[in-house]
Amino acid sequence: MRIESPREFERLGAVRIYGLQKVYELDAGPESGSPEGGEDSVVRRVSSEALHEIESQMAIVVPVRNERLKLIEGVLVGIPHDCLVIVVSNSPRAPVDKFFLEQEAINNFCRFTRKQVMVVHQKDPAIAAAFSAAGYHDILDDKELVRNGKAEGMIMGSLLAKMAGRKYVGFVDSDNYFPGAVNEYVKEYAAGFCLNPSDYAMVRISWHSKPKVVENSLYFAKWGRSSRHSNMFLNKLVGHHTGFETEIVKTGNAGEHALTTDLAMSIDYATGYAVETFHYVHLLEKYAGILTEGEGVGEDMHRMVKISQIESRNPHLHEVKGDEHVEDMIAASLSTIYHSKLCPESLREEIEQDLQRRNYLKEGEQLAPMRIYKSLDRMNYDQFFATSEAAIRAAGGTSLTVPVASSKPSPVEPTPAETAED
Ligand code: GDP
Ligand code: CO
């Protein structure tokens, strides 16, 4: 991949937010002897070997809820072979057992590709019991099962990535129409980790365009209403604390993102539509050195948190499920900024006025805070791994099909057929 070096970055304490990086070539060829694209050049080349090296240490979490099997399969087709795929499904099991159909389709796919895929159901009681045993109760509902939601699925997936010993964890939605786009996202995650390496690194994708039909022809829109809002207010937040107006943040709503597993374990998560925007807010709360008190603040300030933003080339097209939730998305994202201790009074007022202008909030009404899950590093991992493994064995090894690795990926690649019998 050939990719622009970040031209600028904003620094707040240990957090570095790099400017958007443009992709010049999706495939820039293998390692060559020539010294092309050194650290100081404007455009950097990441060889296919270097990408591959990162991919083999990455897990890709694919959250699923009631998607068409053809779409899920297309997404799997796009994920590079060496990534461990973790499908976290919250599809209904009755009256039709959709999850069973997904498992079957995925197993079939694995038979041809020999890809490593872990398929789990969000409501698997074994996983819920493991969360409980490990002392992480917040994620469980009143039936003692993991709550509904994509964020909850992502949290589960991240933990399974850790359990499988993967160093990086990335996310791609299961309703993407283009396998080529999925493939590109994962390559860009790898390129971002290569170019801006750190134990605490995050890569976020900004879509180049989103095709829409306008007056009977295709129009390639760049920014949705919701991302425009999140970016604008996040930039105001950053600008307030640096004292300089900025447009650095372009990925306030990036569903497509990846991070080091260590970072994934150390951050809090918001739920619903707020999860991606909250990444920025929380990273600044925890690592920017602005807040002086509060849980976790000031920890690990010696680690550099690097946020890369990469502009993808494929158009992004996913299943259309109606546009009615845009207002909710905006409110949820802004709520994480509004309720942060970092948010100055003036910005709070601006957010209120914005939401009132769009009739989302009435005069005197308050923006509801989002549910926040505390970081996973406070749970007892050994207990989680031991309980889930034991429960799955006792149940005859139904859904969780990857062996527990301690710190490194297992050198032996289990084929799906073998692991299913474990
Ligand atoms: P949008 O793209 O933001 O409009 O949201 P989608 O409805 O497409 O959801 C994003 C992704 O999350 C899709 O792949 C969904 O299948 C998946 N998803 C939605 N809800 C849940 C859930 O409760 N659990 C899991 N595991 N995945 C979910
Ligand atoms: Co979608």
UniProtKB/TrEMBL annotation:
<dbReference type="Pfam" id="PF09488">
    <property type="entry name" value="Osmo_MPGsynth"/>
</dbReference>
<feature type="region of interest" description="Disordered">
    <location>
        <begin position="399"/>
        <end position="422"/>
    </location>
</feature>
<dbReference type="InterPro" id="IPR012812">
    <property type="entry name" value="Osmo_MPG_synth"/>
</dbReference>
<keyword id="KW-0328">Glycosyltransferase</keyword>
<protein>
    <submittedName>
        <fullName>Mannosyl-3-phosphoglycerate synthase</fullName>
        <ecNumber>2.4.1.217</ecNumber>
    </submittedName>
</protein>
<dbReference type="GO" id="GO:0050504">
    <property type="term" value="F:mannosyl-3-phosphoglycerate synthase activity"/>
</dbReference>
<keyword id="KW-0808">Transferase</keyword>
<dbReference type="InterPro" id="IPR029044">
    <property type="entry name" value="Nucleotide-diphossugar_trans"/>
</dbReference>
